[in-house]
Amino acid sequence: MNLRIHIINNFYSLNLGWALLVISTLRFLEKNFQKITCTIESLYPQHDSKVYPMCETIEPIKSNFKTLVSSLVRAILWRIFHEVGVELDGVINTKPMNSLRKADVVIDLSGDGLCPAKSVSPNYKFKRLISTFTNLLSILIAILLGKRVILFSSSICDLGLLEPLAIALLKRVELIVVRDQYSLKYLDKLGIKHNVALATDAVFSLEPVVNTMEKGLEVCICPSYEASKFFYKLDLDEIKNLYVKLVRYLVEKYGVRIKFIPSSLGGRWDHEDDRVLIREIVGNMDRDILEHVGIVWNPKPEDVLEEFSNCKLSIVSRMHSAILSIINSAPTIMITHSSKFETVLDLFEECVVRIDPEKLDFRNLVEKIDYLMNKADLCRNYIDSKLPEVRKLSYKGLETMEKIIREIV
């Protein structure tokens, strides 16, 4: 069976979480369909075409305000004439809209693209709200063009003023696969039930890399520049000093090496490059501590899973860093307020713990570190025992999507 898919609202593989979401989804579909033709929206097509060689990269409909409004108007005009039996295909003869039009299925892989941020910064909160709105408009354009839309591995929450538009659209998509209980309950509150499924994140379907080296030599730290700048009660300088102090504590007490792994390597804004923060943290360290510190400056999506394979403990601020750590059976500390982490916490109980950014300080962090380091072997065995169940739940989402796609095609 041949399948033509178009991926929306996932704009660059520099965000390794986005990249892994695309890779894990496509790997599954390629195994289960005879031939796939894929297009994906990309703000950095030269870079992304190397990461996704199976897909043609095209300009996103929401790449700028003019393109978005023009596409929306074209889609409305096309739909109006289509309803009265007049086909105006010339109206939608632009590359982004042609890719939409030719697709059998449109898949939204935005992750938390419909979950506006609870930021301490009003400006950032407004930007994320606008981004959520334009993500909804992308879905609307696809629906206007008569396309069957699937939202996959999504977190959907607290849409506020956007709820009326979201309800109208989400009731019309073919399938919504959410990755956390909060999203499931929120959709139920909105009256959206018939087309919703719960599954763990698609990235859990990836297999860990077999590492013959002895485990437990490193502590992996994955700070998020974006979270540090916009979500924590501490200011940026306090965050940097906290990490500097933390690394010294880990080296002196436990004799471990520290590995910094960025999860985002750039994007439209400076705060989307975690290496900026890592560079500044390391720049404030003493020379005797730096001897115990390594940095993965340019992790590739296809290799980043292996970077976590030798971690005794991971301290992370992004969803997919946590998942990569857990896939490798490492006890994990997640610094986040986000509801999208809740299901992961529930599945792994005391071996994956969360610190609310509002309560983040050195004492709280060290308390969690000591707790997990003292039971690291027990936790590794426990995580190992739970992973088959979690991977099965991830495949459940992928298989649900496959079933719907087969019905559509």
UniProtKB/TrEMBL annotation:
Protein name as annotated: Polysaccharide pyruvyl transferase family protein
Organism per entry: Staphylothermus marinus
Domain of life, per lineage: Archaea
Keywords, ordered alphabetically: Membrane, Transferase, Transmembrane, Transmembrane helix
Keyword Transmembrane carried by entry: yes
A GO molecular-function annotation: transferase activity
Coiled-coil region: none
Pfam families: PS_pyruv_trans (PF04230)
Polysaccharide pyruvyl transferase domain sequence ranges: 15-339
Membrane-spanning parts: 12-29
